[in-house]
C-alpha cells in the first residue's frame, strides 16, 4: 500500500511519464521483483549485474520517479545499455510493459537532460536528419553504393586509410552492408497482380532501409505473395515506420511519420498490410499507442493496426500454398526480438519453414535471445553488442546448421557479421527467401 501513497507525490512527474507521454506510471509499480525476467535479459546474462537487468532498470526509473535521484550520467548509462529487446516483457508474469516504459523514459531523458556524446550524435544524424526523409536516405545509400561499387572502398581498405579516422568511424565502415544490388521495389512500382485467381488484396510496407539494402528480400516477398494469389499494392506515399525514432525517444517526429503512413495506406482498401521487417512490423502495430492522444488519428491508427501482419503471420493465416521444390538443408531459426517478444509471433515463421520439402529445422539454444543488433545499438553500444553476438554465434554453431534464418533486416546484418567473425561459411537468410527459392525450384521442375 505504501506504493500507492508514493504514486500520488508530485515528485513522480520527475520521470515525466505523466501527461506528455502515453505511459501509465502505475505500470512501474507492477514489478514484484520476482526475478523471472533476469535469465532472459541479454545484458544481465553477460554482466550478471542487477543494474543491467530489467528489475534493476525499473528500480532506477522508480528512483527517478520518486525524486530520490536525477538523470545522472551513470544512471543514463545503465538505461542506455538496454537493447529494448523486450524479452523481459514477454517473460514477466506481472505484465510490466517494459518496452513502453523504457521508450518513454528515453523520451524524457532527451527532453530533460538533453543529448550529448557519440550515441546522441549518431541518433540525431540518423533519426532526425535521415530517416524521416526518403530522398536523404536514397542519396546517402546512393553515395555508399558508389563508394563500394567503384572500387573506392577496396582501395581505402587496402591502403589502410581508415586507420587515419577515429576508431568508431572505421568500425562503422566495417559494418556497412553490401549494396551490390539495386533498390527494390522501384519507386514507380505501385501494383503487382496476383498469379491466378486473386485470394486477397494486400498493401506492402516496403520500409526505408529494406529496399536499399535488402532489395532481393523485398523482391522475394512480392513473388511469394503473388504466387499465393495476392494482388499487391505498394503506396508511394509511405515512408520509414519510425521504430528507431521511438526507441531513441524521438516521439514527436515518430508521430508525424506514423500519420503519413496511415494516410498512404488507408486510401488503398486492402485486406492486410504486409511487412517483412519484424522491427518495423512491431512499430506499425503500435501506431494506436503512439497516437493515443490524437483524436483525429486514433481511429485511423486503430484501423491501420488491425490490418498489419508480418509476412510469415500472413502466410500462415492465408494459408500459404506449400511449395513442391526441395531444399535439402539443415536450417536454424533466430527469432527476431521484435517478432517474438513484441509481436508474439513465434510459430508462424517455423510453420513457413516446415512447409518446404527437404528442409530440416533444428532449434538452437536460446533462439529467442537477442543477437545484439537492436537498431543502432551495435554502433552506439559496440562492445556489449559484440559480446552478445559472440554468445549467439556459439549457439548457432552448436546446431551444425547449414543456414541461419531470421525475419528482420537488422538481425540479418548482425548475423552476417557474426558468421564472418566466427569463421562460419555463408550468409543469413530471411524466411521468405527460402520459401521463394522453393517456389523457384518448383517452377524449374526440381
Ligand atoms: S519478471 Fe516482471 S515482476 Fe518479475 S522482476 Fe522482472 S519485471 Fe519485475
Ligand atoms: S529490454 Fe532486453 S536488454 Fe532491456 S532490460 Fe529487458 S531483457 Fe534486458
Detailed description of the structure:
The protein has helices at 2-7, 42-47, 54-65, 73-80, 87-91, 98-113, 117-130, 134-149, 152-158, 167-174, 209-213, 215-227, 243-247, 251-266, 278-284, 287-290, 298-307, 311-317, 337-340, 347-354, 377-380, 382-398, 409-422, 431-444; strands at 191-192, 200-205, 230-233, 272-275, 308-310, 330-333, 360-361, 403-406, 429-430. The chain has 446 residues and is of the alpha/beta class. The protein has 4 domains: 2-114, Fumarate Reductase Iron-sulfur Protein, Chain B, domain 2 (Orthogonal Bundle), CATH 1.10.1060; 118-174, no CATH class; 191-317, Glutathione S-transferase Yfyf (Class Pi), Chain A, domain 2; 330-444. The strands form 2 sheets. It has a 5-stranded mixed beta sheet with strand order 1-3-2-4-5. Helix 18 (311-317) packs across helix 20 (347-354) and helix 22 (382-398) packs across helix 23. The radius of gyration is 22 Å and the shape is globular. Residues 40-43, 54, 57, 82-88, 98 line the site of one iron/sulfur cluster.
Summarize the structure.
The protein has helices at residues 2-7, 42-47, 54-65, 73-80, 87-91, 98-113, 117-130, 134-149, 152-158, 167-174, 209-213, 215-227, 243-247, 251-266, 278-284, 287-290, 298-307, 311-317, 337-340, 347-354, 377-380, 382-398, 409-422, 431-444, and strands spanning 191-192, 200-205, 230-233, 272-275, 308-310, 330-333, 360-361, 403-406, 429-430. It is α/β, with parallel strands linked by helices and 446 residues long. It has a five-stranded mixed sheet with strand order 1-3-2-4-5. The protein has a four-stranded parallel sheet with strand order 7-6-8-9, sandwiched between helices.
